[in-house]
Amino acid sequence: MTHSVPAAPFLDHVPVALAFGTSGLRGLVKDITDLEAYINVKGALRYLLDSGDIRRGGSVVLAGDLRPSTERIMRACAQAIVDSGCSIENSGKIPSPALILHAVATGRAGVMVTGSHIPFDRNGIKLSKSAGEVLKSDESGITREVERVRIEEYGQTAARSAFAPSGMLKSPPELSPVDGAAEQRYVRRYTACFAPGGLEGLRVLVYEHSAVGRELLGLILRELGAEVVAAGRAETFIPIDTENVTGELLERLQGLVTDHAGGRRIDALVSTDGDSDRPLVAAVMPTGTDSLGGQVRFLPGDKLGIVVAEYLRADAVAVPISANDAVERRMSERGLRLEKTKIGSPYVIAKMAEMARSGAHERIVGWEANGGFLVGSAIAIGGQLLGALPTRDATLPILANLFAAAEQRIGLSALWDRLPARYGCAGLIDDVPVAVSRSISARLIPPGDVIEVELDTAGQVRDRSRPGVAPPALAAPEADLWRERKETLARFFTPALGFDDIVRINVLDGVRIYFKSGDVAHIRPSGNAPQLRIYANSGSQARADGIVELGLREPDGILRRMERALS
What we know:
Helix content is about 35%, strand content about 20%. By secondary structure, the protein is an alpha+beta fold.
């Protein structure tokens, strides 16, 4: 989210201030001037210095992705680091998890310039503490210090300011030579834990596009025995959103397999988003004598994570409430502790830390619907210890899926066939003012501390907010409020649209509605943009797609009707 702020006297434009989204700062490149990047990084470092997380005189790890704007923003960040009394370790262009792994291992803060999966005309800055990602509990303190730095910088005269009227540095610094330590540490993390030669015989196509980790991913796969076919490298930035894999992208992936098979079988296609913290994994299913490669089958990230958790023999799991309910079903079958969180990696990290403090679990993991996988405790693999890495990572889920299939001597597609047959889809509508979204939420979410309820045909309402505890019945008037919300929702999710009785409602982050048929619909306003989202789960892909289509249809879909009726 961005918002306008009063202009400094020496600027020739009205600045647009960066603000926190679900994970990190994001904005249009034209708004991320050197001055705006400098103010945010200097403010964040001041917060970390004052809190004792880092010390003056120490170094900060700096890195970035392959966007055309990244190098310039990195220079502004470098100036902020130096002016904060710290030195810089320039790790160059590496994955976000590689930067955080290295920074945490050496007790330092990190600054990653990346817009992740969003288009090239946007970018962002992801900040990390000596213990890992900046959490939601840190944001208010950072914002306070950022505003103090803003006042200081805006109070400069045109002559004294280091910034020109355009907001760009008058004399941007040169970045120091790249130090390869972070990159090397990241490679060792996986080559030391996974069996050498464990992927022998596998032929894997790596779709490189503009992913910052494209070379490292290929290197790690080769080190572990796979034959790697590199394809699709792009010199211009290509946004890949692993949570929104479109038909057009699937056609592109299929074309890569066909074009690069070389008359031989390809077993899998793998890739990542721009900063390589979210995986894209597709099985390539054999088609008999077809030498041009088989059909590509993509598996969404929330289901991909189930395989990883099982491969690591996890005993406690945290995922956002938006994850495919196959996760809930599989964890229940396994008798594992599952905690749902609000959407965003900081919430998953906080929940993993809470489970670690309880001392009741030894193998704690988490993941998001985009497939980014987080490790909340050190976990032994093949006699080696995979250290905790509480930030999204793409390499671990790619390797765990390939190794799980290889060790069972089956293909990825056969491995995935063993997962619960639950399918997902998601979409959004734009131009829904944040105030309207808040009004819709207020009409659908009762006041109080209850997060999830179960509703039966007799009208009884039970509180399911505490996992592992028998759900107690709610008494009036609280139960009446939930019955009213059910009736309101039923006005939009009607039998005419294929929906039956509502049996559960969860309001942890938005409104997630469970139907007797097994369908799930989840309505969630964006926290910082004029958008209203809908997620769906069902027993068939066609029905999941259909629920989202019913939600997004213009001008009379479920979301637009909610907008008119509830705001």
